[in-house]
Amino acid sequence: MENIEGNTPEKRFSTGVINATVWKNQGTNKKSNEFVEYRTVSLQRRYQDKEGVWKSTNSLRINDLPKASLVLNKAYEYIVLKENSEQLAVA
């Protein structure tokens, strides 16, 4: 699939400094040349550097894993329910 436009954040799930962002993407299917929409998820941990500036990383500590699991499950649930409701609307 080829990206037509920049993707936009659709939903964010956060618990403390760990967040999962659902991105809505648009593109064309290279085989059929049809317009498609699809979603992706990014996972981040926010932290402050030595100067107190907030930054983000995708590297997690062991204590971050339960929170990461929680926000990723919420993102998955959101995407599945969203896609199911969109398919029902088309039918």
Would you kindly provide a written description of the structure presented here, covering whatever features stand out?
This protein has one helix at 65-90; strands at residues 2-3, 8-15, 18-28, 35-48, 54-57. Strands 1, 2, 3, 4 and 5 form a five-stranded antiparallel beta sheet that branches. The protein has one domain (2-90). The protein has 91 residues and is an alpha+beta fold. The mean pLDDT is 88. β2 and β3 form a beta hairpin.
The rough form would be described as elongated
Cα Rg: 16 Å
Helix-residue proportion: 25-40%
Uncertain stretches: none
What is the string of SSEs from the N terminus onward?
EEEEEH
The figure for the number of domains is 1
Alpha-carbon distance between the two ends = 24 Å
Largest sheet: 5 strands, antiparallel
Number of strands: 5
Number of helices: 1
Structural class: alpha+beta
Beta-strand percent range: 35-45%
pLDDT averaged over residues? 88
List the helices and strands and how they pair.
Layout: E1 2-3, E2 8-15, E3 18-28, E4 35-48, E5 54-57, H1 65-90
Antiparallel strand pairs: 1-3, 2-3, 3-4, 4-5
What attributes characterize this protein structure?
1 helix; elongated; 91 residues; single chain; 5 strands; 29% helix; 5-stranded antiparallel sheet; alpha+beta
Summarize this entry quickly:
The protein is α+β, with helices and mostly antiparallel strands. It has one helix spanning 65-90; strands spanning 2-3, 8-15, 18-28, 35-48, 54-57. The longest helix has 26 residues, at 65-90.
